[in-house]
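Newbie here. two chains, one complex. Structure please?
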Amino acid sequence: MLAISPPGWGANLLRGLANSIQIAVGAFGLGLAIGIAGAWGKLYGSPIVRDLMEVYTTVVRAVPELVLILLLYYAGTDLINRALDGLGYAPVDISGLVAGIGVLGIVQGAYATEVIRGAILAIPQGQIEAARAYGMPPGKMLRRITLPAMLPFAIPGLANLWLIATKDTALLAVVGFNELTQETRQAGATTKAYFTFFVAAGVLYLLLTLFSNVIIGRIERWARRGMPPIAETGR
Amino acid sequence: MSTAASTQPAPARSEWLQPHRIVLIAIAAALVLSAALFMRWEWLPRYYDLALLGIWRTIWILVVTVTLGFMLAVPLGLAQAAGPFWLAWPAKAFCTVIRGTPLLLQLWLLYYGLGSLFPQFPWIRQSELWPILRQAWPYAVVALTLSYAAYEGEVMRGAFAGVPRGQLEAARAFGMSPWKRFRRIWLPQAIHRALPTLAGETVLQLKATPLVATITVIDIYAVASRVRQDTFIVYEPLLLLALIYLIITGILVFGFRKLEAKIPSRLG
């Protein structure tokens, strides 16, 4: 039943996995961008920006992802279409992929904001002061000093976020997007062999996680190059 | 650009209400008021009882799974931190597998997978447990419990390993039996260490509860979905749902903070 060719459902599962990975990568990237902007806003923004970021991270982290996905999925597509309508354009049909990436990206962004904010605060203050003393403009300082210097502190948290992103894609099954969990359920519903397919999908997810762990280990070693090794802390 | 404003100590209470905050609060109040006035809430009285039942179910599932999950997490953490390899290894494998797969998949595996396997065995169908196994909530409770146990087991592993050796040695020098040592010294200090993470994990668990609605357990999320299906009102139930979860999260965080403040923190 798990064969790749049509009588089996292997190809469907693999297609679902590819969709899941695509969404996870997109959402993680979007979340990272939001996170950097959000952390910057929280640390250096005006009081109003800081308060708004606080509301964003608090609300997103307190409300279940499932509810946020429904809310943003319907409200987001509806608002965009209304805006387009108001501007005189024809409404567009937003694909599940784009909507999924957008929704999960906003969720990831809230967590990434906190991770990156903490990492920036962990940079020795002298490095940032030195950059200022050299007269670096803020953009250059972000690119040359802040981002590279915070990376070793941020990578454990960001790695965790990536693993959460891969697993959160399963939630899009609830809005009917054809990622791995949804494909699995369809395969199970057709063949009545639920157990086989769910175990197979679980193995796929697990492989993705374990493979990610190997890559993350490499990246972490690369980001921490030249820094003294630290004893493993609790988490 | 203000320089490193966030490194300053937290502002005193009197500084909290700054002019821009008053404006922001006014805007928020106006938004809430306009939502209350101009959106459609006439469905609320009809679903009031059902919503209360849903909230009760959500809290019930949360409390039961957190309690059971924590009871499982202690041996899991202990086995990984101090157990022999034939205990540590399965515990680690369990945590890795549960943490490496989505909860939704685990839930569906138990509900659809086991649910379709069980009826094939006549002795299960004739057993006295069958009326329970035919319902959805046991699968929800089991899946959420296992998930919480795996995440919390990992936390407890670090907490058990983090208790200073001297404390345990002192307990031993007092001639405490191993069980007494565990009960009086090791476990309380480990729990104290794990408490901040425990609060976070419990909020995550609350956020995982709406998944049970996908296997027909009527929690508050399922109630909101039903309102949407019955009345074709899209946003209002979801917004109210988000507000309910915000309030429950707030209560949880507040409760854990109280609990943390109760325990003297200069241990170890």
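Moderator note: The first helix of chain A runs from residue 10 to 44. The domain at 25-177 of chain A is CATH 1.10.3720.10 (MetI-like fold). Thread marked as resolved.
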